[in-house]
From TrEMBL:
Organism: Zygosaccharomyces mellis
Described purpose of this protein according to its UniProt entry: The 2-oxoglutarate dehydrogenase complex catalyzes the overall conversion of 2-oxoglutarate to succinyl-CoA and CO(2). It contains multiple copies of three enzymatic components: 2-oxoglutarate dehydrogenase (E1), dihydrolipoamide succinyltransferase (E2) and lipoamide dehydrogenase (E3).
Protein name: 2-oxoglutarate dehydrogenase, mitochondrial
Location in or out of the cell: Mitochondrion matrix
Principal location class: mitochondrion
Family per similarity comment: Belongs to the alpha-ketoglutarate dehydrogenase family.
Amino acid sequence: MLRAISSASARQTVSRLTQRSKVASAVNRSLIGLSQHKRLYASGPDQFMSTANANYIEEMYEAWQKDPSSVHVSWNAYFKNMGNLNIPSSQAFQAPPTLTGGAQGAENIPIDNNFASAANIDQNVLLHLKVQLLCRAYQVRGHLKAHIDPLQISYGDDKSKEVPRELTLNFYGFTERDLDREITLGPGILPRFARDGKTKMSLREIISSMEKLYCTSYGVEYTHIPSKSKCEWLRERIEIPSPYQYSIDEKRQILDRLTWATSFESFLSTKFPNEKRFGLEGLEAVVPGIKTLVDRCVEMGVEDVVLGMAHRGRLNVLSNVVRKPNESIFSEFKGTTTQDGVDGPGDVKYHLGMNYKRPTTSGKYVNLSLVANPSHLESQDPVVLGRTRSLLALRNNLDEQTKSIGVLLHGDAAFAGQGVVYETMGFQNLPEYSTGGTIHVITNNQIGFTTDPRHARSTPYPSDLAKAFDAPIFHVNANDVEAVTFIFNLAAEWRQTFHTDAVIDIVGWRKHGHNETDQPSFTQPMMYQKIAKQKSVFDVYAEKLMVEGSFTKADIEKHKQWVWGLFEESFERAKGYVPNPREWLTAPWENLKSPKEMATEILPHEPTKVDLDTLKKVGLAVSSWPEGFEVHRNLRRILTNRAKSIESGQGIDWSTAEAMAFGTLALEGYNVRVSGEDVERGTFSQRHAVLHDQKSERIFVPLKNLSENQGDFTISNSSLSEYGVMGFEYGYSLTDPDNLVMWEAQFGDFANTAQVVIDQFIAGGEQKWKQRSGIVLSLPHGYDGQGPEHSSGRLERYLQLANEDPRFFPSKDGLQRQHQDCNFQVVYPTTPANLFHILRRQQHRQFRKPLALFFSKQLLRHPLARSRMEEFSDGEFQWIIDDVEVGKSLAPKEEIKRVVLLTGQVYTALFKRREALGDRHTAFIKIEQPHPFPFAQLRDAIDSYPNLEDIVWCQEEPLNMGSWAYVSQRFPTVLKETQKYKNSQVRYCGRDPSGTVAAGNKPAHITEEEGFLNDVFGIKN
């Protein structure tokens, strides 16, 4: 039964409908009306009632009775109100109170009491709700009002920006008269205050408290975190009357650390006024912040801290956090080296790293490692995380992830602008890449070289990226060193509690330009007028301590003089300082000889061969699966054929050889880690290292189940990242030489995206920073007519980075030291056995060198790429393979007229053409290792052919790519050492120069291949 509804002006009443036919008619008209007036019916009652549409109210009511979802959701409240409350229709609809201050489309309407009268809500409840919303606004938006900028040009102190409306009284309909109204504390309103005994506060007191908690010299962003427990954990530590209060002793420690940090910059400025040092002036509070973070982490169980940072402030951190001897730093400024000039670093001082074990305030020791880095901003981020992960593995702490921690210091412009930051943060929860959380410290000097923040990012803060990873973000004023200390402590506790990332945005300034010789006022005149008037953070803190009576001016000056005197003593000792190259190494490398230490030793035979029983054990293990495990039917056939090849000892393919290399190393106690996009199955469905049950989520990794005492075998598909993941694996390889670490590109040219890691870390890291690594880059390469993408792994780029001198044939000693002296190895094997031996050779040496390992997609299954079991049990890696020595259809060497030198899969095309031609007088020499170059082996091989008329180099890549530019410089050097071919030349056969890697279609590819094959065999096109 309907109650009569009074309406104003022309609105009709909804009459009581009693006859069935009338009801049916009304519903029908309602549906027709809804179709014809869809726009109005889809709007709310407030908009609808303002139009001349009262004729449709009756129909809509009937429609609502049948199906409430057939009309706009606001009509639901309207019809419910008019049915349950005998009120005018003009008041039946009221917008609910919202944080934005009104109904949609009425943002300027403050929350008022109409809602309460309409819905019969108690005034006190409404008041509490409004105060609760105000408190929530401070939790969400209070950081925008915080005094975090010492220059007062950005953020909360920027006068050009309005205070967020949610933080004003007017937004909630409050007036000055409301400020003294008492509010009951409780849910949503300072519950911690209530637990401390206070049950009521005035609105004025509540606002004052929220200002102190969220709008002082630090601001916190955490409400984006979806976990209620994590948010409550932070509120427990933030929403308390005094979040931090330091004792006199604690203040003395903070002052001492700040004195060292500030005096260090002043001392360098005095002694080396014209040198670049990328000083920390304006952000000196970072040093006591990091030191208190390290102390707190160690108290909570951390044993290793891995630091990564760019150049700004690096020397200060090296001196005052890592404890690198100051005499060492001063000697680098003076340009001194080691006595023989060999073992010192090969990079500028503000790129160097160091490892050091030092005590903490708790009496425990911590291993501190500052990762060396180039000027490629943020490139060290994944390196730090990889190193941290490997330390966790070394300490058997991968499950808890509490003993090792990564700490990254970023510039504000770099954090917001460099994509590798996102790639690295994306590792946070990935099973084989997580490190238990990283603490990110943004040293925010509000400028990027000469670029203003407004031109450097599209977000208010540089830290906004971190919200994607649910990290709490702490903004803090760099001039308030006690607040900085509190925030760094809080971040440390967060990480050790929740094992996820935390971000500290410490906002300061930069006293000088990009470096000390730069003039910043060219581009930022107003900013540097403000900076010129700034007191140092030391002066700010010293004045605070004197005003409060904690210390006298004489106390502070005396301590400053004492610190300066110690710097003077170190400066004098620097004159005779000889650096220890071991300071760049982590402990597990201590027993491994350096390449220099290998100078006077003859390398023992590299034991890469393995007995048949062990080979068979591993081979059969990777060909089988547990009972009751449902393997895919096609994979079952693949694994069965693999087992047959192991049993027969014939036809062992590429992937089986690789698995046997990994497995035998694991049985010997080495740890093997393989990483990259799709490595578990293999991009080309070749590896199948992880088996998946077809009827469940179970997986089985054969190489993890060889023996109870084996080394660890880890293989993991990575995120879709090259730069970040390759950097991570490089960092992982730095920790322990007993780890064989391999990163595999999905396609070889994908390594392009990680070129910074290759150029700056892998190719040059040992010479620049004495950072040794045995990382393997596995790079698919080879032309198959599928277009220019994914054909080439860019072999030429790696060879261009090779450091071997092509102009001189090595001496006897030089030949023995080719591998010790090279910066990395480049290998392109063509047989499974050679792949097996090269992987094992990485570990069976007294030193480590990176390896760029190219492999052919075609050779994964090609019948020419098969090996016998005896080649694994009795063989070793072959630098070159002379096919006359292994072939049966060629003429004796005395009758060979042409030798074709080559590398990689082009061998299969040459072999096929030679067979088709029935040519018995052309021999192929495959160069399996282009770098270090096989000078002696190639000389001897060519000399073994006494009657050559033609020496050819053949490659499938264009002339300006591939190996030609590299080998063409070395062939004359080799030929001069031969008996008969001193004046001979090597003829090039390959594709013509090209701006693109390969032809765009199969017919063009075949035409080009036919051309250079004909050229090799002297057939005119």
